[in-house]
Design a protein that fits this description.
Layout: H1 17-35, H2 57-70
């Protein structure tokens, strides 16, 4: 994993309203899963496996690329 490209490890990304709504819904589902003890031992990552470990960003890129190709 490479270091963040900003000093504080955060960057701003412009997102459309539909994407923001989907991410907020995803975040709410993750919070619910934490309440019932379903993995998620390290909150803060957007995409995690069922056991709470993070999904590597390259994996998400590959999944996205496959989705786009399937159109």
């Amino acid at each position: 994993m490479s270091d963040p490209k900003t000093r504080n490890g955060r960057r701003t990304v412009d997102l459309d309203g539909r994407t923001v709504a989907a991410l907020r819904a995803h975040h709410a589902r993750q919070a619910e899963e934490r309440l019932v003890g379903a993995g998620m031992d390290r909150p803060g990552h957007v995409f995690v496996r069922e056991d709470g470990t993070r999904v590597h960003p390259d994996t998400m890129t590959q999944m996205f690329d496959r989705h786009v190709r399937q159109g």
